């Protein structure tokens, strides 16, 4: 798929309300900020003042974020009408070509499992970003979605306090 970063940005922004509506810098910046706070327990310094550029995510990591987001969306075995509308809005906003749309459909038909996602993550910062992306993709209102997030955090070796901080920040 050509540009997973645009799709991740669009999916986070399509979430609407709360934290995502304030994502003026985009979805990747929001994900990066959540991950930074989760691991360090502090606000990141502002960009341009020695702060990291959270939008500088490699295409491979953005694709993995996207796979985690799709897997989270599919965790309860059903992509409901609201989730489908969000995905379609994000596809449209990101300007995905036919190949990108086909990739997304294949992911929805056969989403990655937590081990498949986690085996590609080697750094704690990346683990926190992948988890934050998956959490932003859903409102975990079913047992299966909550279980998926728990299993993902464990597979990523994400410390429980970091996962809890992400949950608190997203739910706020």
UniProtKB/TrEMBL annotation:
Q: Which InterPro entries match?
A: TerB-like, YebE
Tell me which CDD domains the record gives. Answer: terB_like_YebE
List the transmembrane segments.
20-39
Q: Keyword set for this entry? A: Membrane, Transmembrane, Transmembrane helix
**Has the keyword Membrane been applied to this entry?**
yes
Q: From what superkingdom does this record's organism come?
A: Bacteria
Please give the name of this protein: Uncharacterized membrane protein YebE, DUF533 family
Q: Which organism is it from?
A: Methylobacterium phyllostachyos
